[in-house]
Fold each of these.
Amino acid sequence: MADLEIINLHVRTEDREILKGVNLNIDKGEIHALMGPNGSGKSTLANTLLGHPSYEVTEGKVVFKGEDITEAEAHERAKAGLFLAFQYPVSIPGVSVANFLRMAINAKQDEPIKVKEFGVKLQHAIDLLDVDRAFTSRHLNDGFSGGEKKRAEILQMAMLSPDVAILDETDSGLDIDALRTVAEGVQRLHDEQGLGALIITHYQRILHYVKPQFVHILMDGRIVLEGGVELVERLEREGYDQIRQEFGGSGELAA
Amino acid sequence: MSAASNGAQPNPPSGSSEQIVVKPGRHREASLYHALAGAGAGDGRTLAELREAALSAFARSELPVWRRSGFWTTSFAELDEALLATREQPGEDWKAVSREHPRGAGVPDFVRDAIPDRDRAGRIVQLDSSIVHVELDPKLAERGVILCSLEDAAREHEELFAKWYSKRLTIDRHKLEAANAAFWSGGAFLYVPDGLLVEDPFEIVYAIGGPGVAQYGRTLVIGGRSSDFRVHEHNLAADFGDASETTGGDTYGGEQAQSLHAGAFEMYLQDNARCRLAQVQDWSLPRSRHDGGHAGQVFDASTRFVGVGRDAYCHWLPALLGGHLVRHHLELAVSEPGGDMAFRGLFFTEAEEHLDTFAVDLHETGPSGGDVHWRGAATGSSRASFEGLIQIDPGAQKTHTYLQIHTLMLSPKARLDAIPSVLVSADDVSASHGGTVGELDEASIFYMASRGLDRPSAVRLLVEGFFEPLLGQLEDEPLEELVRTKIAAKLAAARDDIEAYATAR
């Protein structure tokens, strides 16, 4: 039994079915890449896994550490050890990064974190992500550049030590330096903390810095192809169109 | 929710900012809400003469109604007139219905509980109609600081009193203003002499002990040349549920559920003086403090005027946090060249409260600077109305000022209106305004939930974050903490309401 089991997941939003039976297992310590063209349902999967209220699960379930969390609220999933790095992190004016981190950590545990322990943890995360100390006193994502927002996501991930993190197109729009920092951060959290990760991406670039053990290709709401890192290379050579042709054209895919 | 600008042009949509391009001779029509913008009642008359003039204004006027056509009406008609004054026979003079306490009665427990202990330069506490406590750092007294009741100041500091009392405040615009000027008792007087720098705040407290009280609070503050000081005013009321018990051998209210604070505040900063003025007003405190508390119906109609002299500076931040029916006229005037000001304010209404705030950023001469920034939120079926007026008088050239007002709606039944208006009569100035109207952002709440914060915590963080740009500017930790705690209590009290609002959307 994997830590995160996604079983025959069907999801709709408003009146459109987006995920049409996704199956995926992720264990702590494993790095998975989920790739797919625009509109294939990648972000829907990410948001559904964290319990976004706009997405309705019509069939199937999500099991985390043996518990069915299909109906759980977002904050309960986070407390259980799931994390989502957002594609477009929202800004929270008036709340500093450090304050927010402290509140998020305290939400997960019974006793508030000690000032010193928090300081040590924060310093470690700062070093890991190559950000300025002053960064943590800025208001969360408020006026941040694209790269800073993504670093702030990984900083939060490092501080909250989830068992499984979903990274929703964290690499999109990043310059190479930011991309490298973010990717190395994920890799080190994997190596140091045994993080399990589902890296959702449209491009292959980030996978030059983080090596996934498993690669899944999502098209039109279903995973159509799975394999190891060799799939990334194939995708680089052939593109999504080739794979789409092979697995049933651009419209409805064969089961 | 709505927002509109004065005059013909509609207000720009939320999130935008409008630059007023001023052309010579162009004069935007002012609203029904007028700045005082002129001489006060003082004008050489003695206190007795002023009281008499006010009394006749009181006798001939009705309870006030402020109306902003299409937006709101603030009517004091439901206020029980018997509270205000009494007379034995028709035709005789009206007398105040005062509730007196012995001098030296000390700080009431409910005040002690509500306002954190801290270092203070001095403190004066009025309970109902009487000053019950005055303290002043003896070192400051030695250096010429005066902190006493306004009654005492009228007798003991005649010259200062005569020069400044009601210098810019009127006494007859409406019945409650006239009542204050005619009947005020106790009152606070603070004089900070030239060149004196005082770090700790002077604290002025107006407290209402129970129902059936008409408190006519009157404050006069004078900052001497190059003085530098802080003033904190607190307004609060006891739990009206407890008030049927005797207090000092006397019972409150009986059948009455209402009390009134009609306040008049004036502060004059002379050349190069600097003051940070903050006010925490929360007449409905018992409700937000604990369930089952009995917030009384406190009506509050107050006028506050701050005059900024040559090269002087005032940072003024009222936090208006509760009252059954509240009407505030707040006017910050730069009266001499080089004056500068930061006019900040926050309000947060709840339950059935009605708040009407008129904030004036007045420039009588230039060069001068202004920066007005208000933020307000509303829960329950409360009503918060804000009008901010920038007025630049003829000759106030080289004035640069900006007004912004941001509102946050937390309940479907609440109503928030914010109207910025601009009245410019000089041609070499810049005056602009902007603002936003907002609701809780569900994307932000989901973001925080994905980090483990439950909905109430996320909402609290968002609302605190909304007020944060102002809270930080209090530059005073105990006061910041006090306001934060009150905001948190209001959110906790409105939790179901906020939840229902989210679902409804």
Amino acid sequence: MSEWLTAIFISPFLDMASGPIFFAEVVISGLLAGVMYSMVALGFVLIFKASGVFNFSQGVMVLFAALTLVGLMERGVPLWLALLLTVAVMITLAYAIERVMLRQLVNQDPFTLLMATIGLNFFLEGTGELLWGSNVKKLDVGIPEDSLEVAGMLLNKFDLIAAVIAAVLVTVLAVLSQKTKIGRALRAVADDHQAATAVGIPLTTIWVTVWAVSGIVALVAGIMWGAKSGVQFSLSLIALKALPVLILGGLTSIPGAIVGGLIIGVGEKVAEVYWGPVLGGAIENWFAYVLAMVFLMFRPHGLFGEEIIERV
Amino acid sequence: MVGMNGSQPILQVEDVELSFGAVQALIGVSVDVYRGEILAIIGPNGAGKTSLLNVINGFYRPQHGRIVFLEKERPKHFRPYQVARQGIARTFQNVALFKGMSTLDNIMTGRTLHTRTSFLSQALYWGRALREEEVQRRRVEEVIDFLEIESIRKTPVGRLPYGLQKRVELGRALAAEPELLLLDEPMAGMNVEEKEDMSRFILDIRDEFGVTCVLIEHDMGVVMDISDRVVVLDYGRKIADGPPHDVRTNREVIEAYLGVAHE
């Protein structure tokens, strides 16, 4: 018994201390994976902040964007043009969603809006497959895949580049929506549609902007994940990995999405490497969810989310 | 009818018809609002008072009739935010504040109309956006001073008692520096003291800022005290329009609204 306790509570930490470079390598690879989670979570946060809608279709938007890009490239469209076209498609999609779906649902219960996004989920999934087929596609955007040695640590170049791109994107969005009136307008719309229009905030513009931006974030996430693991249906399931990130960070916080992603990325890598041998492998698969459960019990609004106060 | 200063009305609602399916909410209602007056709309429940406010601020589009504001006829497909931009602000019957935000942030949203920088320019010219924020903040502090809510500046509005929430909502509407302020039951659910405060604020808003007010109110004492003119609605029709005293003694109003007098 005591041997087992030692294996859980003491030896992993001894291992970390005895091999600092290896530990750093694990942490960094965790951070890099975490940034990718953050990027998916960010799409959710943007839309939730601006419409109080939990966008069930965020994962499929990632898939749809990646499919469109690959589909265009397969038809011989050069990468830069395919990128531009996909961005245009995502913006058009945002416009269509506002026109066909959101506009009809102004002032409805958030739950109604959630149901609508579930519908959107199936619609996008079907349309994507209809247009571009359902087999696994390889996405090559020309980012090098080889390793790089930094201070004795082996790091994957692709991961590094992906992390830099994600970091830039996340910073720009965080700064934009955290300060000044844009952020306030977004939160106003999320809180009360009617009151927001009554103070002169144009719902349409806000919604189209936000859905377009989150569509573009979905495209970036789709490119990164797609280039890593191929563009296929399972890409939409990375949305599931974003859920614990949201619970950790809080649904309404952009910095929360980032920190949440990083904690989960690092946590699951470290747990896998150091506790995997004792507890059995595949910790990576469930670690995030267990952590999310703990958070739900003790801090349901997440690290940075808004505490919701209901008066009775 | 001649205006208070013999002036043109600031708002003309002309022969408005509004129905939802078979329910007729407003039937041929015409109301003129003159600059600088406090106009009370009264009537029994379901008389169409809130519907009329919703028509004025653009939430509802009437099937028939015209609305002229500041001598400009409102186009058919005008949206509520465009009406807000013309200078009409409002509060709601059930307090529609942005619950997660502080008092300050709520009132700042009222300044939306007066912020010139767009999304893109905020992204590109960081410094200008910050300066703009400072200017807006100063105006908002004036509103906060005026309404005597300095101490709850940073409090999330969800935590405030109802009476104060109503005051914050008034602040948000006022921050927009409107020409016309629509107040939907500004004193509902308040105690006597709170009602007195609110009455004073409404009178001050008119006297100090020259804002024209249209309010819906059930408390007849308040209506008689603060309004210059009273419009009475009943079953979607206007049944009286005049100074408080005349309306109070109008036979039809007494029957419809106050019940038949037993003497």
